[in-house]
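Technical note accompanying the year-one report. For the benefit of new consortium partners, we illustrate the data format agreed upon in the data management plan: each record pairs a sequence with a structure-token string. No post-processing was applied to the example shown here.
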Amino acid sequence: FDEPLSAIDYKLKKVLEKELKDLHKETGKTFIYITHSLEEAMVMSDRIGVMRAGRLVQVGTPEQIYNHPVDRFVSEFVGEVNVIEVKKEQDGAPWRGIDVPGAFHVRPPEEDAEADHAFVVIRPEYLRFLGAGDTAQNSLKGTVYNEYSLGSRIQYQVRVGEKVMLVELSRSKALPIAADRSVTVGWDAADAITVRA
């Protein structure tokens, strides 16, 4: 199937996604489903192949592709991300930010534990606002400059120097944060993915 649901309204698309999943299960046949929609790929697939320049870059389950991308391209292809370029200065010490000032606690890249230069990828849903008394292994100070309603979620754009970081909270945890308000965003090393540079 090549983008079969791309021009269908949302409610009908959801019904047809379910029917296609049921048909796939009932027949036990292999379906090849081509889409540029992250949501469709995650919903419809048992396995996803991400291609770049005509080559497969990574094949895996939706969970593997989303939470364990092999590189920065795959991480950005399958959803919004915050990316910080970092450099290891010495073993056991925090990594230094290159494009954002600061020292960060990160896990080395899974595919290259000896790397000394990498990208830290943090999905917006893993960033959180830190209030007085809140802690996180890593934090950045910034200024909220925009807020978007995404239905069940609210996404905040936070400017950190020249970089824009995205913070996404469920509507039930959303905060009334005015534009131009100074904030601190934080995350733990376990909530980030480190990929080779």
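Partners are asked to follow this layout when depositing records. The helical segments are 10-27, 38-44, 62-67, 72-77.
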